Every structure is written in structure tokens, then in C-alpha cells.
Predict the structure of Sulfite oxidase.
Amino acid sequence: MADPKHHVVKPYLVTRRLHPENQETPIQFIENDRIQTSLFYRRNHFSYPNLTYSNYFLPINGMVNTPLLISLQSILQLPSKTVEVVLECSGNKRSLFEPKVFGEQWGKGAISQGVWKGVPLRTLLEISGIKEAAKEVVVEGYDFGKRTDLDKVFSYTRSLPLEKAIHPDTIIAYEYNKQPLSFKHGFPFRLIVPQWYGMASVKWIKQISVMASPFNGPFQKIDYMYYPNLENDDGAHPVTTINVNSTIQKPLDMAKINTGKHVIKGIAWSGKGNITHVEISTDNGHTWSKAQVSASKSSYKWVSWSYEWNAVEKGIFSILSKATDSSGQTQPIKPYRNRNGYGYNAIDNIKVMVE
């Protein structure tokens, strides 16, 4: 019989839904900056697609001089680019909205990061030659299903403005953490769009089309829009760049701890620049102290931070974390309220009991 003292307990994904599969990273138990594939969050609108890879070709069409049908092998032979990027679902932390909003009730784990390798989308667009009238690049995935709101079948399809599509770090990825991209995360190819929420990083790429007019598919113009008014669509605008944010990983929310020294630790990230500082409050926001933040030269990654707290008194304490980025944005006290519950980034807040 195995010795229970030597039994290694490992974290595993937190299931939010089975059909389609939506699971989040156990972010409170993550110790490093690169999330292994098995713990990378899974966000699906539909069932996984049925694909055969033996004869995979990627069409590039629309407002291009030379439409292409490029093979998987040819893409793998093109000059590659490697980027370390955080991907965050725009619905991350949706369950924290008060009052509640409808949608997948994500906790704090619809976020993961690692190293992606692939071909810049720009390279493929340059090979096909973009016409002068081009405005957007539409990327269609193989995943599809019926939308009950429209009573019609759609594939998951999104567009990028041309300037974002041709950014050198927007890549068509085929590797993650030096391993072939897993099927559940988009094999053989997925788009990676740094600094934007994960809905832009289309999986299982089926085709790429360059357009002269705005794309109006339902995942572009109905979903992934901020609707600030609950009753109507006034003021609607698209979800794009990741908001400045932070998450406390340790201690756990509602934990009981002893008096003495404790390390409060977590992560912080933003789509609008580097994290410049993280502040911690152990008295529900009355006073703030600066945490130690790990240095990062990349604005595409989260940073780790830590703060040593000497818990002298017994009682219930609210611990808060507040991040600020290089564009001057700081986490707000209250989140931006919107109908679909996107972009939650209020100051993180947990409670502990000191005994």
C-alpha cells in the first residue's frame, strides 16, 4: 500500500460546464508563470470540432492580391516567432459582479499564460498581398453550433482591425510551452492576440479573410460587447484590451490563520502596459502598502507580487490588492457594470480570520 504521507496532491481544473466544456485554472494553487497544458483554462462556445489533419490546408482570401491555400507543412517551414502571453477570458471573475449577471459564472481562474510559438499573421498576409482597401482580417474557427438567440448555425468567427492583425506579435500559434498545441486549445493552429481578451484568439483556424468593410458576425457585434445600459444597447462598444487587474492567490479566501507573519502573494496584469506597482491593504482599504513586484520586461505577461504581513491582532480582516499599470490605470473600487459581465477588474478582496 502507498504511504499516504508521500502522496502528492496536484491541482486540477475547476469545472464550470461540461457541454460545451468550460473549465478554469486553479489559479490560487499556481506556483509559476507558465501554466502547463493540463491546467490551462478551457473556454468553448460549442462542442469540440471534428477535424482530420492529414490534409490540412489554410485558405487566405478576400481583399488580397494572391489568394492562398497553404499547407500545414508550409506554415511550419516559415520563419517563426515566440511570445510569452497571458490569455484571459473576458468573462473572468464574472461571478463577483453584484448584483449578479447572466453568463458563465467564472471565478478567478479563466486566465492562464505560457510561451506560444507560431508564424506572425502578418507574414501570411504579406505573402498573399493585402489590397489597399483592406480594413479588417476575419479569422474563422472550425468550431460551430446553433445559437438559440438567432435560431441559426454559426462558426466561431472574429475579426481584427488591420493594424492589430499585422502587429508582429499577433501570431498563428502551433506550439505551446515547446510542445505541439493540444487539440483542446486549438490544434493545429490558433490565433494569439497579445493584450486583448481571449475571445480574439480564435482556435482551430479554418480560414482567414481580408475585408474592406466591418465584420458583423454575432461573436463580434452581439457577444463581446460592453452594454452599459441593462435596458437597451445605448453606449455599446466592443471588448478589446485587457483591463488592469490583480488576484490574491494566498492566503485563500475565508481561510483561518494564526497570528504572526504571513506572506500575501498573487499576480497582476494589464493589456495597456507594464504593471508599475501593486498595493496591499489588510484593513479593508483604510491604509495601503506597496508589495514587492517581480521585474518583467514584457507587457504581455502577468507579474508575481508578494507582501509580508505581520498579523498581530485576532479577528476578521479584509485583504485587498490593487494594481497600477504604466498607462496610469489603477483597479477601481467597483467594476465597470455591464450587461454581459465582461472585463471585471475591481480591487481584489478576500477575508481571513486570524485566530
In short: DSSP finds four helices and 23 strands in the chain.
